[in-house]
Write a structure and sequence with these properties.
The chain has helices spanning 3-22, 98-112, 117-126, 133-142, 145-148, 152-169, 172-190, 194-211, 218-232, 240-262, 268-292, 299-307, 310-326, 328-336, 339-353, and strands spanning 31-37, 43-44, 48-53, 56-61, 71-79, 82-92. The strands form 2 sheets. A 3-stranded antiparallel beta sheet has the order 1-5-6, with no helix packed on it. A 3-stranded antiparallel beta sheet has the order 2-3-4, with no helix packed on it. The longest helix is centred in the last third of the chain and has 25 residues, at 268-292. It is built from 15 helices and 6 strands. The protein is mostly helical.
Length: 354
């Protein structure tokens, strides 16, 4: 048995032990008190907000608003994996640093763009899930919800932008280490959701490999990324976002190039988004159908129609937001450039969900 196989086996054993030793033991009917920091932004609906902490799902009234980075105390009664009759006992909004910067960006988008455009930009740029319930439902119905919340694509774009910019002024080795810091900062700003962390770890391993002059193996990187995440938070193994993120990644590695070649008669501008979406959907569609009992067969086409806008929305939205916090008037002017893109995105979603 090779050293690599031994390390894989050892990692699996560690994850198994970690999961069983750290898994919260709840019994139906138990009255529990949860004290925790919110590491994933709640999904905010018209009258309530959905939160998941320590393996339990629950809904709280929309106000007082709980946001990413808050420290909260919640009580309630356990029923399966849910918290029944939850009560928000305490909330501390003592955010600073990157948490505060994130909230300021969201506030800037909300105050300068109408809905659902503000939510679209905030979700694309920094993974905000605070959006109108009707818009969120349309995104889920069309299979495009993953596009509007920060994902691995955002991390890849952030890393590519930083490397491209920094190598103009610095040696590549220095640029790589600064990019790693930038990736970590983006993960913190966007929220510690599984897809973001997965992409952050995989991207960091890839960059470190480049800095050391080693050829990276995508399969090995994906395995170790999953292992590292499960060692840190074993409950992720039951998290739908974690499962879908890695299944989609594996599907892309297996199928994206083959599908792209088979669709060579389609224009390149549309083919890339379509082949990427089709490859990912092959893996995630069965999981989505089993979990939710539905799947939109037109989802790959809808994704292809809107995916091309995401890089531009993210870059222009990020630049406009950051500048807007310093010079609000200039930031607003930059945001106006987004209107053709976000209008196209919203209209495609609206038409496809009717």
């Amino acid at each position: 048995m090779t050293l690599q196989r031994i390390s894989f086996l050892f990692l699996i054993i560690l994850i198994f032990l970690r999961f069983n030793l750290s898994k919260p033991i709840y019994k139906n009917g138990d009255f529990v008190k949860i004290t925790s920091k919110v590491y994933s932004e709640p999904i905010v609906y018209d009258r309530q907000q959905y939160i998941k902490l320590q393996g339990l799902n629950f809904y709280l009234p929309k106000y007082p608003s709980v946001t990413y980075g808050d420290n909260i105390v919640v009580t309630g009664q356990v029923s399966q994996d849910k918290l029944v009759n939850p009560k928000l006992v305490e909330i501390k909004n003592d955010k600073n640093g990157l948490y505060s910067f994130r909230q300021k960006l969201i506030n800037f988008y909300k105050s300068n763009l109408p809905e659902p455009y503000a939510s679209l930009v905030a979700g694309t740029v920094i993974g905000s899930k605070n959006m109108p319930e009707s818009f969120w439902n349309r995104l889920k119905a069309t299979g495009t919800a993953h596009v509007v919340v920060a994902s691995g694509t955002n991390v890849t774009m952030t890393a590519s932008f930083l490397i491209g910019l920094l190598t103009i002024f610095l040696k590549r080795r220095q640029a790589i280490w600064l990019t790693l810091i930038g990736i970590f900062g983006y993960v913190v700003i966007s929220g510690f959701d599984a897809p973001i962390i997965r992409a952050g770890i995989m991207g960091s391993i890839l960059l470190i490999g480049q800095e050391k002059g080693r050829i990276a193996n995508a399969w090995r990187i994906a395995f170790y990324a999953a292992g590292a995440m499960l060692l840190i938070k074993p409950l992720w193994i039951t998290d739908l976002g974690f499962i879908l993120s890695f299944v989609a990644t594996i599907s892309l590695m297996l199928l994206q190039k083959k599908i792209d070649i088979s669709l060579k008669i389609i224009p390149a501008s549309f083919r890339e988004g379509l082949s990427t979406s089709l490859a990912a959907q092959v893996g995630v569609a069965p999981i989505i159908f089993v979990t939710f009992g539905q799947f939109n067969v037109l989802s790959p086409i809808i994704n292809a129609l809107v995916l091309w806008t995401i890089p531009y929305i993210m870059v222009i939205g990020a630049i406009g937001g950051i500048i807007g916090l310093i010079v609000p008037v200039l930031g607003r002017l930059i945001m106006f450039a987004l209107y053709p893109l976000i209008y196209w995105f919203v209209q495609i979603i609206n038409l496809s969900s009717n």
